[in-house]
Specification:
alpha+beta; FAD/NAD(P)-binding domain; Elongation Factor Tu (Ef-tu), domain 3; binds flavin-adenine dinucleotide
Length: about 400
């Protein structure tokens, strides 16, 4: 039986980065696809938004309810450390106006190549087309079984990713592996997904992108409000503000969209004021300067039941009320959030309560570690998920090296 210090399951950013930090240990990565990092290559539309700039202490706020878990890993391997790593490995990085960090080349391939080169330097072996099927305690360590062989190892890192974009190899295999070792798994759900809506009356405006505020209502209760860029699609809505809120959305929820930052009373006052000055203008012309594209304004006027040729002077109080509501609180009924085929991330996964947040070691199966998205850990768009993969992989590698050297 081939023997290793560490067997890592999965050659995504978490598995590769963990391996790159494990020298001089004898490390084997088992990857079920014929090539590594398939999802990494799709990230950031092929440009790879590998982390997010800014104060590392503020970064954890972008991981929903799991900020407390991820914080120690982020502090141990920060966004700046990630940037330094890639600079050192020949991949200069740049930060865009929104704080997203990309390779200067805007090529995800360069990020993957740097990770593979670092693994090579560390003497890591990678075996492709080997899907891990079980992990069981054996000889004070673990036996890792694939259809090809069984490997004996002191430590195992499960870095199998989540379930989104399954064609990349992330098909949720880590969950039964973890359950087989006694771990609980929070049911996985698509996250960072566009949303499909019922009666999509703005369908013809697909492609329009603007800054908006969205509020999710669940069973008549306000759940969460977020600001950001919104994209109207043929089937509903997307863009960062929708993707980042999608982990909270459920079929049947109501999304209320504010297409203007002005509150209802100010939009109402503005309409009245402009009508008094230029009552002969068509209603949508009275709304210029609200940072809403004209096509959207026309559609919102129409959706308020106001005939297109209506002038300000003809606008009744009832019509004005309906228009103000459409601009500041446009209600949309959620048919369903996108599925795993379109989700960029997975919410749910191996329960964090049974994982040590400082080392990512299992609290119930000593010597088993987790890294990356296989855990119940999902971040917002903006580079937070790849950063989490690196940071959790780093703390796991550090602890394993400590134990190997002890
Ligand atoms: C379209 C898209 C764009 C994205 N863009 C960004 C972005 O710009 N910035 C960002 O931060 N995040 C982005 N993400 C999310 C980010 O890519 C993931 O969070 C990240 O890849 C997770 O890394 P991971 O190593 O944990 O898992 P993965 O990248 O999913 O890698 C897991 C690996 O494990 C392998 N594997 C699975 N099961 C087995 C098994 N049984 N045996 C052996 N191997 C196995 C898989 O084949 C895969 O190679 C994007 C995601 C998508 C889908």
């Amino acid at each position: 039986m081939p023997e290793y210090d560490v067997v890592i399951v999965g050659a995504g950013p978490a598995g590769l980065f963990c391996a790159a930090n494990l020298a001089p240990a004898k490390v084997l990565i088992l990857e079920k696809m014929k090539l590594p990092g398939r999802k990494l290559l799709l990230s950031g539309s092929g440009q790879c938004n590998l982390t997010h700039a800014g104060d590392v202490k503020a970064l954890s706020a972008n991981y929903g309810d799991h900020r407390a878990f991820v914080k120690p890993a982020l502090m141990a391997f920060s966004n700046q450390a990630a940037m330094d790593f890639f600079e050192k490995h020949g991949v200069p990085v740049q930060t865009n106006e929104n704080g997203k960090v990309f390779p200067v080349s805007l090529l995800a391939d360069d990020v993957l190549d740097a990770l593979l080169a670092a693994c090579d330097e560390a003497g890591v072996e990678i075996s492709y087309r080997e899907s891990v099927q079980s992990i069981s305690p054996k000889g004070g360590g673990y036996a890792v079984q694939t259809p090809v062989a069984t490997y004996q190892t002191k430590f195992v890192v499960i870095a199998t990713g989540g379930m989104s974009y399954p064609a990349t190899g992330s098909t949720g295999d880590g969950y039964p592996l973890a359950e087989g070792l006694g771990h609980a798994v929070i049911p996985p759900e698509p996250s960072l997904t566009p949303v499909y809506v019922a009666d999509h009356i703005l369908r013809d405006l697909s492609g329009i992108s603007l800054s908006a505020k969205v509020t999710i209502w669940h069973d008549g209760k306000k759940l969460i409000t977020r600001d950001g860029d919104l994209l109207i699609t043929r089937f509903g809505y997307s863009g960062p503000v929708i993707l980042d809120s999608s982990r909270w959305m459920r079929a049947g929820d109501v999304l209320k969209i504010a297409f203007t930052p002005l509150p209802p009373n100010e939009v109402d006052a503005l309409l009245k004021e402009r009508t008094a000055l230029s009552g002969g203008k068509l209603v949508y012309n009275l709304l210029s300067g609200l940072s809403c594209p004209e096509r959207l304004l026309r559609a919102l006027v129409f959706a308020a039941g106001i005939p297109e040729e209506t002038t300000g002077a003809q606008l009744t109080a009832k019509m004005r009320g309906a228009l103000v509501a459409n601009l500041t609180d446009f209600p949309v009924s959620i048919d369903r959030p996108g599925d795993f085929g379109v989700a960029m991330c997975t919410a749910g996964g191996v329960s964090l309560t049974e994982i040590n947040k400082k080392t990512c070691e299992s609290k119930i199966a000593p010597g088993i570690f987790f890294a990356g998205e296989v855990m119940d850990l999902d971040g917002d768009t903006g580079g937070y998920n790849i950063q989490a993969a690196f940071s959790t992989a780093f703390v796991a590698a550090k602890k394993i090296l400590q134990m190997l050297c002890a």
